[in-house]
Structures are given as structure tokens and as C-alpha cells.
Design a protein that fits this description.
Elements lengths: L2 E5 L4 H6 L27 E5 L4 E7 L10 E6 L19
Antiparallel strand pairs: 1-2, 3-4
């Protein structure tokens, strides 16, 4: 399962069709404009997901902390990753 997110400085279609990411099969949910934060006109911030994950909620937050508005997401994991089936790092600590 893969999640790639951040300020990509390009449109999602460019990433998924004209970059090495095209071979990963990632999906790009539509996100509203995030740049510039003072008057958003362009969508340059993306959350790319593998098809095995479900985007439950996406929200552009109206809290300008840089020249881009932040994006909050809620992602649903596949049932096979719920509960105590999550992998535990060596040493047994999750923190």
C-alpha cells in the first residue's frame, strides 16, 4: 500500500502520466486549489494513493501557514490491516 503526498509543483495528471510514478498505478483524488494560500487558484498539492486504499475524506484547510494551504485526509485501510494484524517493528514498540 502506498501513499505519496505533498507539494508536487505540478498537476496530478503530469505526475501520473509523465513521470516515473506512472508505473506505480497510483490514483489522484481531486483536491481543490491550494496555491497560493492567499487566493488559491492552482492545485499543486496532491495525495496519491494505491488502489488498495480508500480516501474517506479530503479537506483543504483555511489556515495559511505557508504559500500553500494545508490538506487534511482520512484514509481507510483494507480490512486485512485492521486490529492486531498490523506489523510490529523489531523490538515490539510502535512508538
Amino acid at each position: 500500500h502506498q501513499v505519496l503526498m505533498g507539494d508536487m509543483n505540478t498537476h496530478a495528471n503530469d505526475l501520473l502520466e509523465h513521470s516515473p510514478l506512472r508505473d506505480l498505478g497510483l490514483l489522484a483524488p481531486q483536491i481543490e486549489a491550494t496555491f497560493p494560500s492567499w487566493r488559491p487558484q492552482r492545485c499543486l498539492d496532491h495525495i496519491l494513493l494505491s488502489p488498495t486504499l480508500t480516501l474517506e475524506r479530503v479537506q483543504v484547510l483555511a489556515h495559511p501557514i505557508s504559500d500553500h494551504l494545508p490538506v487534511a485526509v482520512e484514509i481507510r485501510l483494507p480490512a486485512s490491516l485492521h486490529g492486531d494484524s498490523l506489523p510490529v517493528p523489531s523490538g515490539g514498540n510502535l512508538a
